[in-house]
């Protein structure tokens, strides 16, 4: 959504990758470069929203967040005006300079695709696919009752 575009100078567009794996995916496919080129500020990886980290909004200014920590005062500003919304809405709003519907800002609406697992970066190795021994394979749930 941001590739080739720039946010207005009055907008603070902060990105908090939730893990090193997410940061690596952003780097690998060029999205990190696009975010930086648009004027985004990248914070260190981690669950920043869950522990109240991130940029505190100025008094009287709106702050759009994608983490479900939008209760009063959680952003670090007592008089905050925090809205919970999708990444697409926050990005469209950053580009527009006001709260905006991503389907109505004149750019193609992104198609979301689930990323493939990246086991080489995972902390826990995913289970290996294997078939159980033939004696344990059941063709129908009712077969379990007959075999017991």
Please give the structural blueprint.
Blueprint: E1 14-15, H1 20-28, H2 31-38, E2 41-42, E3 62-65, E4 81-84, H3 87-96, H4 141-147
Parallel strand pairs: 1-2, 3-4
Mean pLDDT: 78
Order of H and E elements = EHHEEEHH
Low-confidence stretches: 135-148
The radius of gyration over CA amounts to 22 Å
Q: Total helix count? A: 4
Strand order of the largest sheet: 1-2
Main sheet?
A: 2 strands, parallel
Strand content: 5-15%
Q: Give the distance, in angstroms, between the N- and C-terminal Cα atoms.
A: 57 Å
Question: Could you tell me the number of beta strands?
Answer: 4
Q: What oligomeric state best describes the polypeptide chains here?
A: single chain
The helicity comes to: 10-25%
Estimate the global geometry from the Cα principal axes. Answer: globular
Structural class by SSE content: alpha/beta
Structure, described:
This protein has 148 residues and is α/β, with parallel strands linked by helices. Residues 135-148 have low confidence and may be disordered. A two-stranded parallel ribbon has the order 1-2. It has helices spanning 20-28, 31-38, 87-96, 141-147, and strands at residues 14-15, 41-42, 62-65, 81-84. It is 23% helix and 8% strand. The protein is globular.
């Amino acid at each position: 959504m941001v590739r080739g575009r720039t946010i207005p100078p009055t907008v603070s567009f902060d990105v908090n990758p939730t893990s090193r794996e997410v940061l690596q995916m952003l780097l690998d496919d060029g999205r990190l470069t696009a975010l930086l080129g648009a004027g985004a500020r990248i914070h260190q990886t981690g669950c920043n929203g869950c522990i109240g980290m991130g940029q505190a909004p100025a008094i009287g200014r709106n702050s759009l967040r994608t983490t479900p920590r939008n209760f009063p005062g959680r952003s670090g500003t007592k008089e905050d005006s925090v809205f919970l919304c999708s990444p697409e809405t926050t990005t469209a709003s950053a580009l527009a300079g006001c709260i905006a519907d991503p389907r109505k800002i004149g750019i193609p609406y992104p198609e979301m695709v689930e990323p493939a697992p990246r086991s080489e970066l995972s902390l826990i190795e995913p289970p290996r696919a294997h078939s159980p021994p033939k004696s344990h394979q059941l063709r129908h749930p009712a077969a379990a009752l007959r075999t017991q």
